[in-house]
Amino acid sequence: MKIPKQRRRGKDSAGTLEGQLLVAMPSMSDRRFARSVIYICAHSDEGAMGLIVNQRASNISAPDLLERLGISPRGEDDAVSNDLLELSIQVGGPVESGRGFVLHSADYFAADSTLSIEQGVCLTATIDILKAIAQGNGPNRAILALGYSGWSPGQLENEIQANGWLNCPADPDLIFDDDLESKYARAMAKLGIDLSHLVNDAGHA
User: Fold this and answer.
1) What is the pTM of this model?
2) How far apart (Å, rounded) are the C-alpha atoms in residues 21 and 168?
3) The domain 5-197 belongs to what CATH superfamily?
């Protein structure tokens, strides 16, 4: 697994959305992002990269994935790690869907492969973190995303200006909560928006 080139943090860029949530407007025309909540891992003048945190991968389980990777999910007592069984596998986006990215709490950190983002949220995209999770030594909170969402330079800014997205501060509880079905409404609520009152044809504030 490999973090894409857009991961460069670009903290000197004005208006960076790194570490924030991107929330799709109800009028989002791209089905892949309909009602999606995306955690932005990197945003600079080189582009942006994020992971959808509310789309479950329906065709694979964590034990199945680790078996494909040749990782044993069993410890010394030959019992499957609870951390493994509870690992949420999600669709991170349409780009390079065969690659995995683990978004996790900062209690796991590998100096050569973990990217610290914001508020105790980190990103690791090497197989070592999956081995640690399988052995019960992984982070306290984690989601595994297959693929990522990427934008070329200026593309995300243009989509936001065209009312494709809203953004708000990230909430670790929302990011890692396994109740995926409620995340979109909860993210909208963080913006003070009641979905039942939101029409599709939104104008600029």
Assistant:
1) 0.84
2) 5
3) VC0467-like (3.40.1740.10)
